[in-house]
Design a protein that fits this description.
- The chain is built from five helices and six strands.
- By secondary structure, it is an alpha+beta fold.
- The protein has a single domain, classed as Cytidine Deaminase, domain 2 (3-Layer(aba) Sandwich), CATH 3.40.140.10.
- InterPro entries: Cytidine_deaminase-like.
- One of its GO terms (molecular function) is catalytic activity.
- This is Cytidine deaminase.
Length: 148
């Protein structure tokens, strides 16, 4: 869909403009989430002395979407190794994939590609054997409907 492509390119543009502002040197990244109502939410990873309590880059943006009670349609995480390195997309980790499934299996996520091209896939394609397939969809739909 053309509208999806516009959203995805806007998300990437926002990410690569934000990273050098927030992190002029070194490694880091940003996550951008797009909501059904057109809002974009941005987040970065929390830096702590104890890495076992760190959170994924996407978590802050997901929390913002929950705070405003809006449905997430897209999620993108972009990083760079340092200020001289190219930007690259990171596929959401398994935990973040579970978090994003709150908004359904149609949420589109940016994925890592071998040629570093911008590509999004729905969660259902990323997780074709997801555990929720063991349950009738009506049993799981009430979680989404209660929030929106």
């Amino acid at each position: 869909m053309e509208q999806d492509r516009i959203i995805e390119e806007e998300m990437y543009r926002r990410a690569i403009e934000f990273i050098p502002q927030r992190y002029p040197k070194g490694w880091d990244g940003v996550a951008i989430i797009h909501a059904e109502d057109g809002q974009y939410f941005t987040s970065v990873s929390i830096e702590t002395a104890n890495s076992s309590v760190d959170l994924c880059i996407e978590v802050g943006a997901m929390c913002e979407a929950h705070k405003y009670n809006v449905r997430v349609t897209h999620c993108l995480c972009v990083v760079r190794d340092d200020e001289n390195s190219p930007f690259k997309v990171l596929t959401p980790c398994g935990v973040c994939q579970e978090r994003l499934r709150f908004w359904g299996e149609d949420v589109k996520v940016g994925v890592t590609t071998s040629d570093n091209t911008l590509k999004f896939v729905p969660l259902r394609e990323l997780q074709p054997y997801h555990w929720t397939n063991a349950y009738p969809s009506e049993e799981l739909e009430h979680y989404e409907k209660e929030s929106y």
